[in-house]
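This part of the workshop introduces the protein records we will be handling. A learned vocabulary of local backbone shapes supplies the integers on the structure line. Getting from the letters to the tokens is the skill we practise here. As an example, a complete record with its sequence and its structure tokens follows.
=====
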Amino acid sequence: MIKSWIARWRDTALNRAPLAPTVPFYAIGDIHGRFDLLTRLLDQLDPAHPVICVGDYIDRGEASAEVLRQLSTQTDILCLMGNHEDMLLGFLDDPEHNGSRWLRNGGLQTLASFGVSGITETATGDDLKRARDAMGAAMGLDLITWLRGLALWHQSGNVFVCHAGAAPQASLEDQQDRHLLWGHPEFAKTARSDGNWVLHGHTIVDSASAQNTRISIDTGAFATGRLTAALVQPGKVEFIST
């Protein structure tokens, strides 16, 4: 009993390490084609602080092309890879194998935003290849190259930023790509015990929050109209939403 209490006390003490980013920064949650919300939110941010986007710029919303074109030209914004960007790249690489999954998860809206039409979620074979070729031409090599170069994570002090989350019992250096992009089953249940915080999107929450070593900022912009940014500072987080 005493050992159990000591273990719980130790974990609690470690999990309450104060936020200590190297510099204050903003992180923006999942945009999902809401170019209108992105421009509105950026206007609310102090240009003195760097900005990081946590991925999922495309799909579901109607203006994915505009979002990608805007972000890819913003040299003062660091963009990370989300699972939806990963699905798009998979479609471009192998449409027959990867197309159906992406199309079911909002890919049709992204194709439409680039002017690619005449395809459905149940498309197969040559129809998928034609859509891939049209999409590649519409995007252009520069934009595709930019997407392929997106990092999976960024760390500032003891704040680790990624798209979906991280395995809580693995070191940050040993995270698997699939967990950073798609999440880990224990991420929402288990706080980290190494003094680090994980800031993420991917999982929609009613309100952005910072608790139990997690900072959650996906407020479902494509459906709710609320795109959220977190201003991460030493010892505190402030949230700004559209």
Observations:
- Confidence is low (pLDDT under 50) at residues 1-15.
- The chain has nine helices and ten strands.
